[in-house]
Amino acid sequence: MAMIESIEDAAELFPSFQNLSFLITLFSFLEKYGLLCIEVEFYVAIFGLFLTLCHIFVLTRKPMMTSSIISIMIGMGICDALSMIFAISVKDLSYNFYRDECTPPFTFAQFVIFLLLAHSRDNIMRCSIWLGLVMALFRFLALRFVSQPGILKITNTRFGFVATFITFFASCVLTFFNVFRYRLVEDGIWTAGEKCHIESNNVYIIYRQQLSDVYNANSQLLLRAVTFINAVSTKILPSLLLPIFTILLIIEIRRARKKITNASAQVQKQTDKTTYLVIFMTTTFFIASLPAGVFSLFQVIYSDKGFIYLFSFVDHFSNVILTVNASIHCIICFVMSTDYREHTKMILGIQPKKINTNSIF
User: Fold this and answer.
1) Where are the transmembrane segments (predicted)?
2) Higher confidence at residue 240 or residue 72?
3) How far is 123 from 284, CA to CA, in rounded Å?
4) Per CATH, which fold does 33-101+123-180+218-347 belong to?
Protein backbone atom coordinates (compact mmCIF):
# COMPACT_ATOMS: atom_id res chain seq x y z
CA MET A 1 0.00 0.00 0.00
CA ALA A 2 1.35 3.39 -0.99
CA MET A 3 2.41 5.80 1.74
CA ILE A 4 2.46 9.60 1.67
CA GLU A 5 5.15 11.04 3.88
CA SER A 6 6.11 14.14 1.89
CA ILE A 7 4.90 16.64 -0.70
CA GLU A 8 6.87 14.69 -3.33
CA ASP A 9 4.95 11.48 -2.53
CA ALA A 10 1.64 13.34 -2.80
CA ALA A 11 2.65 14.92 -6.11
CA GLU A 12 3.47 11.49 -7.52
CA LEU A 13 0.09 10.03 -6.53
CA PHE A 14 -2.01 13.12 -7.29
CA PRO A 15 -0.38 14.98 -10.22
CA SER A 16 -3.67 16.73 -11.12
CA PHE A 17 -4.00 18.53 -7.77
CA GLN A 18 -2.26 21.60 -6.38
CA ASN A 19 -3.39 21.53 -2.73
CA LEU A 20 -1.10 18.65 -1.79
CA SER A 21 -0.92 19.46 1.93
CA PHE A 22 -4.66 18.81 2.22
CA LEU A 23 -4.29 15.49 0.42
CA ILE A 24 -1.50 14.43 2.77
CA THR A 25 -3.76 15.15 5.77
CA LEU A 26 -6.75 13.40 4.19
CA PHE A 27 -4.67 10.39 3.13
CA SER A 28 -3.13 9.98 6.60
CA PHE A 29 -6.52 10.30 8.31
CA LEU A 30 -8.21 7.74 6.07
CA GLU A 31 -5.28 5.35 6.35
CA LYS A 32 -5.22 5.53 10.15
CA TYR A 33 -8.92 5.04 10.73
CA GLY A 34 -9.36 2.75 7.73
CA LEU A 35 -7.26 0.18 9.55
CA LEU A 36 -9.42 0.62 12.64
CA CYS A 37 -12.51 0.02 10.49
CA ILE A 38 -11.20 -3.41 9.49
CA GLU A 39 -11.00 -4.37 13.17
CA VAL A 40 -14.41 -2.90 14.02
CA GLU A 41 -16.08 -4.55 11.04
CA PHE A 42 -14.72 -7.95 12.07
CA TYR A 43 -16.55 -7.89 15.40
CA VAL A 44 -19.68 -6.29 13.93
CA ALA A 45 -19.76 -9.03 11.29
CA ILE A 46 -19.60 -11.80 13.90
CA PHE A 47 -22.56 -10.36 15.82
CA GLY A 48 -24.38 -9.38 12.62
CA LEU A 49 -24.03 -12.84 11.12
CA PHE A 50 -25.96 -14.36 14.02
CA LEU A 51 -28.74 -11.75 13.68
CA THR A 52 -28.88 -12.12 9.91
CA LEU A 53 -29.18 -15.91 10.03
CA CYS A 54 -32.06 -15.51 12.49
CA HIS A 55 -33.58 -12.92 10.15
CA ILE A 56 -33.40 -15.31 7.19
CA PHE A 57 -34.93 -18.10 9.28
CA VAL A 58 -37.96 -15.95 10.15
CA LEU A 59 -38.45 -14.72 6.57
CA THR A 60 -38.33 -18.22 5.10
CA ARG A 61 -41.21 -19.52 7.24
CA LYS A 62 -44.13 -20.45 4.98
CA PRO A 63 -46.66 -18.01 6.54
CA MET A 64 -44.23 -15.14 5.85
CA MET A 65 -43.86 -15.94 2.13
CA THR A 66 -46.58 -13.60 0.98
CA SER A 67 -45.08 -11.18 -1.56
CA SER A 68 -42.11 -10.26 -3.72
CA ILE A 69 -40.88 -7.91 -1.00
CA ILE A 70 -40.27 -10.93 1.24
CA SER A 71 -38.51 -12.79 -1.59
CA ILE A 72 -36.18 -9.86 -2.19
CA MET A 73 -35.53 -9.45 1.54
CA ILE A 74 -34.55 -13.13 1.71
CA GLY A 75 -32.10 -12.54 -1.14
CA MET A 76 -30.72 -9.49 0.64
CA GLY A 77 -30.37 -11.48 3.86
CA ILE A 78 -28.40 -14.25 2.12
CA CYS A 79 -26.14 -11.65 0.49
CA ASP A 80 -25.62 -9.91 3.83
CA ALA A 81 -24.76 -13.18 5.59
CA LEU A 82 -22.24 -14.14 2.90
CA SER A 83 -20.74 -10.65 3.00
CA MET A 84 -20.19 -10.95 6.74
CA ILE A 85 -18.58 -14.38 6.32
CA PHE A 86 -16.19 -12.89 3.75
CA ALA A 87 -15.48 -9.92 6.05
CA ILE A 88 -14.51 -12.28 8.86
CA SER A 89 -12.36 -14.35 6.48
CA VAL A 90 -10.32 -11.50 4.95
CA LYS A 91 -9.61 -9.59 8.17
CA ASP A 92 -6.10 -10.96 8.81
CA LEU A 93 -5.29 -11.06 5.10
CA SER A 94 -6.20 -7.37 4.72
CA TYR A 95 -3.64 -6.34 7.34
CA ASN A 96 -0.85 -7.73 5.15
CA PHE A 97 -1.23 -4.73 2.84
CA TYR A 98 -0.27 -2.52 5.78
CA ARG A 99 2.49 -4.79 7.09
CA ASP A 100 5.62 -3.49 8.76
CA GLU A 101 9.18 -4.31 7.75
CA CYS A 102 9.20 -7.47 9.88
CA THR A 103 6.08 -9.10 8.39
CA PRO A 104 6.56 -11.32 5.32
CA PRO A 105 4.37 -10.61 2.28
CA PHE A 106 1.65 -12.81 0.85
CA THR A 107 2.59 -16.05 -0.77
CA PHE A 108 1.13 -16.51 -4.25
CA ALA A 109 -1.58 -18.83 -2.91
CA GLN A 110 -2.53 -16.40 -0.11
CA PHE A 111 -2.77 -13.53 -2.58
CA VAL A 112 -5.04 -15.54 -4.86
CA ILE A 113 -7.28 -16.56 -1.94
CA PHE A 114 -7.50 -12.96 -0.77
CA LEU A 115 -8.46 -11.72 -4.24
CA LEU A 116 -11.12 -14.41 -4.63
CA LEU A 117 -12.63 -13.52 -1.26
CA ALA A 118 -12.44 -9.79 -1.96
CA HIS A 119 -14.06 -10.07 -5.40
CA SER A 120 -16.74 -12.40 -4.03
CA ARG A 121 -17.52 -9.93 -1.28
CA ASP A 122 -17.70 -6.99 -3.69
CA ASN A 123 -20.09 -9.03 -5.82
CA ILE A 124 -22.34 -9.89 -2.89
CA MET A 125 -22.39 -6.34 -1.47
CA ARG A 126 -23.18 -4.91 -4.90
CA CYS A 127 -26.01 -7.40 -5.27
CA SER A 128 -27.41 -6.47 -1.85
CA ILE A 129 -27.46 -2.76 -2.73
CA TRP A 130 -29.09 -3.48 -6.08
CA LEU A 131 -31.73 -5.61 -4.37
CA GLY A 132 -32.48 -2.63 -2.14
CA LEU A 133 -33.13 -0.61 -5.30
CA VAL A 134 -35.29 -3.38 -6.79
CA MET A 135 -37.31 -3.62 -3.57
CA ALA A 136 -37.97 0.13 -3.57
CA LEU A 137 -38.87 0.06 -7.28
CA PHE A 138 -41.33 -2.83 -6.82
CA ARG A 139 -42.96 -1.08 -3.88
CA PHE A 140 -43.34 2.16 -5.85
CA LEU A 141 -44.88 0.37 -8.85
CA ALA A 142 -47.26 -1.56 -6.58
CA LEU A 143 -48.47 1.70 -5.04
CA ARG A 144 -48.52 3.82 -8.18
CA PHE A 145 -50.34 1.34 -10.42
CA VAL A 146 -52.35 -0.53 -7.80
CA SER A 147 -55.53 -0.39 -9.91
CA GLN A 148 -53.96 -2.15 -12.90
CA PRO A 149 -54.38 -5.98 -12.83
CA GLY A 150 -51.04 -6.60 -14.55
CA ILE A 151 -49.10 -4.96 -11.75
CA LEU A 152 -50.11 -7.75 -9.35
CA LYS A 153 -47.53 -9.95 -11.07
CA ILE A 154 -44.60 -8.07 -9.50
CA THR A 155 -46.05 -8.60 -6.03
CA ASN A 156 -45.93 -12.37 -6.48
CA THR A 157 -43.38 -14.24 -4.34
CA ARG A 158 -42.01 -16.17 -7.30
CA PHE A 159 -41.49 -12.95 -9.26
CA GLY A 160 -39.39 -11.62 -6.38
CA PHE A 161 -37.13 -14.68 -6.47
CA VAL A 162 -36.72 -14.34 -10.25
CA ALA A 163 -35.80 -10.66 -9.86
CA THR A 164 -33.30 -11.61 -7.15
CA PHE A 165 -31.65 -14.22 -9.39
CA ILE A 166 -31.43 -11.80 -12.33
CA THR A 167 -29.88 -9.15 -10.07
CA PHE A 168 -27.31 -11.62 -8.76
CA PHE A 169 -26.45 -12.78 -12.29
CA ALA A 170 -25.96 -9.18 -13.49
CA SER A 171 -23.66 -8.50 -10.56
CA CYS A 172 -21.65 -11.65 -11.35
CA VAL A 173 -21.12 -10.46 -14.93
CA LEU A 174 -19.60 -7.22 -13.68
CA THR A 175 -17.46 -9.13 -11.18
CA PHE A 176 -16.18 -11.36 -14.01
CA PHE A 177 -14.69 -8.32 -15.76
CA ASN A 178 -13.21 -7.04 -12.49
CA VAL A 179 -11.51 -10.35 -11.68
CA PHE A 180 -9.47 -10.39 -14.89
CA ARG A 181 -8.53 -6.73 -14.76
CA TYR A 182 -5.19 -7.49 -13.08
CA ARG A 183 -2.71 -10.36 -12.96
CA LEU A 184 -0.16 -11.24 -10.31
CA VAL A 185 3.50 -10.70 -11.15
CA GLU A 186 6.72 -11.06 -9.17
CA ASP A 187 8.11 -7.81 -7.82
CA GLY A 188 11.37 -8.86 -6.18
CA ILE A 189 12.51 -10.69 -3.06
CA TRP A 190 11.40 -9.59 0.40
CA THR A 191 14.03 -9.01 3.04
CA ALA A 192 13.33 -8.24 6.67
CA GLY A 193 14.43 -4.95 8.20
CA GLU A 194 17.57 -4.70 10.31
CA LYS A 195 15.56 -4.41 13.55
CA CYS A 196 13.55 -7.58 12.97
CA HIS A 197 16.10 -10.23 14.01
CA ILE A 198 14.40 -12.86 11.86
CA GLU A 199 16.42 -15.99 11.30
CA SER A 200 14.93 -18.01 8.48
CA ASN A 201 16.08 -19.70 5.31
CA ASN A 202 12.72 -19.13 3.62
CA VAL A 203 12.72 -16.95 0.52
CA TYR A 204 9.67 -14.69 0.24
CA ILE A 205 8.77 -13.40 -3.22
CA ILE A 206 6.85 -10.13 -3.33
CA TYR A 207 3.82 -10.23 -5.63
CA ARG A 208 1.86 -7.29 -6.94
CA GLN A 209 -1.09 -6.76 -9.22
CA GLN A 210 -0.34 -5.60 -12.75
CA LEU A 211 -2.85 -4.47 -15.33
CA SER A 212 -3.53 -7.29 -17.78
CA ASP A 213 -2.60 -6.87 -21.43
CA VAL A 214 -6.23 -6.87 -22.58
CA TYR A 215 -7.09 -3.97 -20.31
CA ASN A 216 -3.88 -2.14 -21.16
CA ALA A 217 -4.48 -2.24 -24.91
CA ASN A 218 -5.95 0.63 -26.97
CA SER A 219 -4.91 3.30 -24.46
CA GLN A 220 -6.64 1.34 -21.67
CA LEU A 221 -10.04 1.76 -23.33
CA LEU A 222 -11.52 -1.41 -21.80
CA LEU A 223 -10.15 -0.46 -18.37
CA ARG A 224 -11.78 2.97 -18.54
CA ALA A 225 -15.08 1.46 -19.67
CA VAL A 226 -15.16 -1.20 -16.93
CA THR A 227 -14.08 1.30 -14.25
CA PHE A 228 -16.80 3.71 -15.35
CA ILE A 229 -19.53 1.06 -15.46
CA ASN A 230 -18.42 -0.40 -12.12
CA ALA A 231 -18.30 2.99 -10.38
CA VAL A 232 -21.61 4.20 -11.81
CA SER A 233 -23.62 1.00 -11.32
CA THR A 234 -22.16 0.01 -7.95
CA LYS A 235 -21.69 3.32 -6.12
CA ILE A 236 -22.84 6.45 -7.96
CA LEU A 237 -26.18 5.32 -9.41
CA PRO A 238 -27.44 3.75 -6.15
CA SER A 239 -26.46 6.94 -4.30
CA LEU A 240 -28.64 8.91 -6.72
CA LEU A 241 -31.57 6.51 -7.11
CA LEU A 242 -32.04 5.54 -3.45
CA PRO A 243 -33.11 9.05 -2.29
CA ILE A 244 -35.24 9.46 -5.44
CA PHE A 245 -37.14 6.24 -4.70
CA THR A 246 -37.52 7.33 -1.08
CA ILE A 247 -39.11 10.63 -2.13
CA LEU A 248 -41.37 8.89 -4.65
CA LEU A 249 -42.58 6.42 -2.01
CA ILE A 250 -43.38 9.26 0.40
CA ILE A 251 -45.33 11.03 -2.37
CA GLU A 252 -47.29 7.86 -3.12
CA ILE A 253 -48.19 7.41 0.55
CA ARG A 254 -49.58 10.95 0.70
CA ARG A 255 -51.45 10.49 -2.58
CA ALA A 256 -52.99 7.21 -1.39
CA ARG A 257 -54.12 8.76 1.90
CA LYS A 258 -56.27 11.29 0.04
CA LYS A 259 -58.30 8.42 -1.42
CA ILE A 260 -58.86 6.58 1.86
CA THR A 261 -62.39 5.54 2.73
CA ASN A 262 -63.58 4.12 6.04
CA ALA A 263 -63.66 0.63 4.56
CA SER A 264 -60.11 0.83 3.29
CA ALA A 265 -58.56 2.65 6.25
CA GLN A 266 -57.23 -0.51 7.91
CA VAL A 267 -55.81 -1.87 4.64
CA GLN A 268 -54.16 1.48 3.95
CA LYS A 269 -52.64 1.50 7.43
CA GLN A 270 -51.06 -1.90 6.79
CA THR A 271 -49.83 -0.76 3.36
CA ASP A 272 -48.25 2.34 4.89
CA LYS A 273 -46.31 0.17 7.36
CA THR A 274 -44.85 -1.86 4.53
CA THR A 275 -43.92 1.27 2.59
CA TYR A 276 -42.32 2.91 5.63
CA LEU A 277 -40.30 -0.26 6.17
CA VAL A 278 -39.03 -0.10 2.58
CA ILE A 279 -38.34 3.65 2.94
CA PHE A 280 -36.33 3.12 6.12
CA MET A 281 -34.24 0.34 4.60
CA THR A 282 -33.71 2.38 1.41
CA THR A 283 -32.56 5.38 3.45
CA THR A 284 -30.02 3.33 5.41
CA PHE A 285 -28.67 1.92 2.14
CA PHE A 286 -28.27 5.47 0.81
CA ILE A 287 -26.38 6.63 3.91
CA ALA A 288 -24.10 3.60 3.74
CA SER A 289 -23.29 3.87 0.02
CA LEU A 290 -22.94 7.68 -0.27
CA PRO A 291 -19.25 8.07 0.82
CA ALA A 292 -18.01 5.42 -1.59
CA GLY A 293 -20.23 6.90 -4.30
CA VAL A 294 -18.60 10.32 -3.93
CA PHE A 295 -15.06 8.92 -4.12
CA SER A 296 -16.05 6.68 -7.05
CA LEU A 297 -17.09 9.82 -8.90
CA PHE A 298 -13.63 11.32 -8.34
CA GLN A 299 -12.05 8.06 -9.46
CA VAL A 300 -13.99 8.27 -12.75
CA ILE A 301 -13.23 11.97 -13.32
CA TYR A 302 -9.55 11.83 -12.41
CA SER A 303 -7.03 9.22 -13.48
CA ASP A 304 -4.62 9.91 -10.59
CA LYS A 305 -3.32 6.70 -9.03
CA GLY A 306 -3.83 8.13 -5.55
CA PHE A 307 -7.60 7.89 -5.87
CA ILE A 308 -7.32 4.11 -6.09
CA TYR A 309 -5.77 4.10 -2.61
CA LEU A 310 -8.20 6.71 -1.27
CA PHE A 311 -11.09 4.67 -2.59
CA SER A 312 -9.79 1.55 -0.82
CA PHE A 313 -9.59 3.47 2.47
CA VAL A 314 -13.09 4.93 2.05
CA ASP A 315 -14.30 1.44 1.16
CA HIS A 316 -13.27 0.30 4.67
CA PHE A 317 -15.51 3.01 6.18
CA SER A 318 -18.39 2.19 3.84
CA ASN A 319 -18.07 -1.54 4.51
CA VAL A 320 -18.45 -0.95 8.25
CA ILE A 321 -21.59 1.14 7.67
CA LEU A 322 -23.02 -1.44 5.25
CA THR A 323 -22.26 -4.27 7.70
CA VAL A 324 -23.94 -2.40 10.55
CA ASN A 325 -26.88 -1.65 8.25
CA ALA A 326 -27.19 -5.31 7.26
CA SER A 327 -26.95 -6.40 10.90
CA ILE A 328 -29.96 -4.33 11.97
CA HIS A 329 -32.34 -5.42 9.18
CA CYS A 330 -33.92 -7.96 11.51
CA ILE A 331 -34.33 -5.30 14.20
CA ILE A 332 -35.93 -2.91 11.70
CA CYS A 333 -38.38 -5.60 10.58
CA PHE A 334 -39.15 -6.61 14.17
CA VAL A 335 -39.93 -3.03 15.18
CA MET A 336 -41.88 -2.01 12.07
CA SER A 337 -43.66 -5.23 11.05
CA THR A 338 -46.43 -6.66 13.19
CA ASP A 339 -46.48 -9.90 11.23
CA TYR A 340 -42.71 -10.34 11.50
CA ARG A 341 -42.89 -9.66 15.22
CA GLU A 342 -45.69 -12.18 15.77
CA HIS A 343 -43.91 -14.93 13.85
CA THR A 344 -40.69 -14.29 15.72
CA LYS A 345 -42.53 -14.66 19.01
CA MET A 346 -44.18 -17.87 17.79
CA ILE A 347 -40.78 -19.32 16.79
CA LEU A 348 -39.43 -18.46 20.25
CA GLY A 349 -42.52 -19.98 21.87
CA ILE A 350 -43.53 -16.68 23.47
CA GLN A 351 -46.79 -16.47 21.56
CA PRO A 352 -49.17 -19.32 20.58
CA LYS A 353 -49.44 -20.17 16.88
CA LYS A 354 -52.20 -18.58 14.85
CA ILE A 355 -53.95 -20.22 11.94
CA ASN A 356 -54.72 -17.01 10.03
CA THR A 357 -52.26 -14.24 9.30
CA ASN A 358 -52.47 -10.88 7.58
CA SER A 359 -49.04 -9.96 6.39
CA ILE A 360 -48.23 -6.31 6.14
CA PHE A 361 -45.88 -7.11 3.28
Assistant:
1) 12-30, 42-60, 72-90, 129-147, 159-180, 236-253, 274-301, 307-336
2) 72
3) 19
4) Rhopdopsin 7-helix transmembrane proteins (1.20.1070)
